């Protein structure tokens, strides 16, 4: 009985303190209100439109008037002859991009952090950040020009080979081109957050380790990487959560009729089936399927990382 009364008293005190906090910081909540309203209007209310994934949507009848068909569109997608190819293309592209591309910004940040001359450091950062600000359309155009049979890359290769290589039409080259260009474009900019985390490392730790005889590699492993562990954990969880979102724009722009066996992913399939073919319900169902998998992966990655490292998103 005493324990129950103590718990009730503690709960009452917490509620009272929260009410007082809200009253004392009313102006702050007032500033927050417009952002909350915008999120509700543009992020939560439109979620109602997801119901068309379970209906035979007709623009004339509207969402409410359209016939309910349940999981018909989901079953149709899972049983379609293209499902395995599209799903595996998505997983392979995103999986290899994560496996190869995730460590590179960390390595870049550590390398930049080792530079001691401020001017050289700024110039190198400017060079590695610049590709991020190029449009995806520009990147795709550059790839088509440089890798075309008459482009500069084949111009060099034909010095050692008899015939040029059709990089943009051969499915076997698509993943390598997609992943390599993505890393080149985003790795430098992605390293900013790691550089910022490394800037908080006390230089005296490196000085003390150097005096104790630690090599550069030992200092990186035991000082820099330890400081980056929380940042790496959080960004890895977010990367796992976005593994199904390969990147519609670049995949669609790099697609040709010849490389479709490797370039057709879930996002491009949704665009073609949902928007171009006008099958909105089917497109919404495939998009929802993709989002649910992403959510499951995010929660799973968060749980695993929390148990292994103690870091978590929530």
TrEMBL record:
Major location (coarse): membrane
Keyword Phosphoprotein among UniProt keywords: no
PANTHER family cross-referenced by the UniProt entry: BLL4140 PROTEIN (PTHR43227)
Subcellular location: Cell membrane
Sequence intervals crossing the membrane: 26-45, 98-115, 127-147, 173-197, 227-248, 280-305
Membrane topology: Multi-pass membrane protein
Keyword Cell membrane: yes
PROSITE patterns xrefs: ABC_TM1
The ABC transmembrane type-1 domain, residue ranges: 87-301
UniProt cross-references to InterPro entries, sorted A to Z: MetI-like, MetI-like_sf, UgpAE/MalFG_permease
UniProt record, GO biological process: transmembrane transport
Keyword annotations from UniProtKB, A to Z: Cell membrane, Membrane, Transmembrane, Transmembrane helix, Transport
Protein name (database record): ABC transporter permease
Gene3D superfamilies per the UniProt record, alphabetical: MetI-like
One Gene Ontology cellular component annotation held by this UniProt entry: plasma membrane
Similarity-based family: Belongs to the binding-protein-dependent transport system permease family.
Superkingdom of source: Bacteria
